[in-house]
Amino acid sequence: MKKASFSWELFNKIPIIGIMRNLPAGRIIQIASLFAEAGLTNLEITLNSPGAPELIRELAKVFKDKINIGAGTVCSLGELDTALSAGAAFIVTPVVNEEIIQKCVSMAIPVFPGAYTPTEIYRAHVLGAAMVKVFPASALGPAYIRELSGPFPHFKLLPTGGISVENMEDYIKAGAKGLGIGSHLFPAELIQQERWYDLRQIFAKVKAYYSR
Q1: 133 is a catalytic site residue
Q2: What Å distances lie between residue 35 and 86, 116, 141, 209, CA to CA?
Q3: Is 166 a known active-site residue?
Q4: Any idea what the CATH number is for the domain that residue 87 is in?
Q5: Among 13, 44, 58, 103, which one carries the catalytic annotation?
Q6: Which of 46, 130, 143, 180 could form a disulfide with 160 if both were Cys (CB 3.0 to 4.6 A apart)?
Q7: Would you say the pTM of this structure is higher than 0.90?
Q8: Which domain holds residue 167?
Q9: Domain assignment present for 2
Q10: What is the DSSP letter of 76?
Q11: How far is Cα of residue 35 from the mean position of the Cα atoms in its chain?
Q12: 1 within some domain
């Protein structure tokens, strides 16, 4: 299995992971093109989206060296193999699955496991998570991230769930080293109505924050 390359340089330019879940397959390339044009650099295709492996494969081919393309909602070793075979450069899980984390670490694949309690977050970090996805972040908000930064000042936390352009700064100021943004970054209504200008404006606001 040929390993896809992941660029931390790309990731750190704008440490936002755009989460594509159940978006119209026929619009994925167009949306990703707008995403890349805005200067955003990280996309996650969730494996529970129709045709996810094919989408990952296509995006990885089209946007090589421009966007890190990863797979999300990876819940088993079988799904991990599917994601990596499709060309995913990073892996996101909703839970702390030790087998997935350990296999990714052994292959030098960045893995961002989902965790919530301090115990889960600590365990994910110790197992070798590149970053820990704090999910669902919206339940306790930025204050929870700030509290976690007390005992875990060196952990790279990636809040996901309920993050939007409007509240992203609150999470970053609280100590988040990155963010996962889904429906607020890719509003279904805008995509269904093909309001590409409005979608560009959302992407531009994210880019503008990191360009200040």
Answers
A1: yes
A2: 21, 29, 26, 15
A3: no
A4: 3.20.20.70
A5: 44
A6: 180
A7: yes
A8: 8-207
A9: no
A10: S
A11: 14
A12: no
